[in-house]
Amino acid sequence: MRDGVETIGLLAGLAPEVAADLLRQAQRRTVHADEVLFTAGQPARSVHVLASGAAKLMQTTPKGARIIVKYVRPGEVFGSPALLDKFYPVDAVSVMDGVELQWPSELLRTFIDRQPRVAFNVIHDLETRLREMEDRLRDLSNEPVEHRLARAILKLVDTFGRRTDDGVEIPFPVGRQDLADLIGSTLPTVSRTLRAWETQRQIRRSRRRLVIADVEAVARFLYQETSPESKPRRAARR
User: Fold this and answer.
1) Which of 19, 77, 95, 210 could form a disulfide bond with 11, CB atoms 3.0-4.6 angstroms apart?
2) Which residue, 90, 129, 121, 89, is CA-closest to 103?
3) Residue 34 carries which DSSP code?
4) Alpha-carbon gap, residue 78 to 169, rounded angstroms
5) In sequence order, what E strands does the chain have?
6) Are 129 and 70 in contact (CB under 8 A)?
7) Which residues pair with 77 in a beta bridge?
8) pLDDT digits (tens, 9 = 90+) for 76-126
9) Which pLDDT does position 73 carry in this prediction?
10) Are strands 27-31 and 98-104 parallel, antiparallel or unpaired?
């Protein structure tokens, strides 16, 4: 069971035989694109890790608006509320074929009693996620849409990007609505910005994939001033 085992943060710092023991106790299954892994409000029974593939974590507001909280890469822990016998706060949906590992919460708690390093690894993952959420909150409060969109695309490039002849490709479908849900904007605003970037040949769409033809050009948007009218109002979602 190799897959992306060496990237699993839950196993960091463990002796090889201890890591192998924890892996042996994982429930392993193949998942497919668009498969629901768990839903918000469902009792959290297992802690999850992707050995390969990718997933998105989403929430829906009381008014029906969708928010993409983050994209999960191989090796990241998600579903950790299971360690506290709580409920999953988000929907988790696979965005490409891959392999998922699950540890029943009771089993993992027993393992943590013997190997406190595992708890440290979970805390480290949660701390990283907290920093990400703080950065996103700062972006939503202060940055114009163009900056937020550029930053989100560059994050996808850094985490999932694959080099192709046409540029750097995100290996799963990322639609304009997905990007709007990811940066807290609206479909018309994101579509308008992406059309401009496509015209300038900085990005392109290929086989439902987002391809960044000029990563440096997209990165330059983070250092450009935008006109006052393009800046988001603090009280409204654009």
Assistant:
1) 19
2) 121
3) T
4) 25
5) 27-31, 36-38, 46-52, 55-60, 66-72, 77-78, 91-94, 98-104, 162-164, 167-169, 203-206, 209-212
6) yes
7) 49
8) 999 999 998 899 999 999 999 999 999 999 999 999 999 999 999 988 888
9) 94
10) antiparallel
